[in-house]
Amino acid sequence: MATAREPERPALALFAAELRAARGHAGLSREDLAVKLNYSASLVAMIETERRTPSRDFAARCDEVFDTPGTFSRLEERLRDLPYPASFRPFAGYEAEARSLRMFEHVLVPGLLQTPEYARAVLSTRPHTTSDELESLVAARLARQVVLDRKDPPLLWVVLDEGVLHRPVGTPEVMGAQLRRLAALCDEAYVTLQVIPFSAGGHIGLLGAFVIAEMGDAPGIVYLETAADGQTVEDAATLSQVALRFDSLRSEALPRSASKDLIVKLAEEKWT
Question: Domains along the chain?
Answer without folding.
Answer: 8-79 (1.10.260.40), 89-269 (3.30.870)
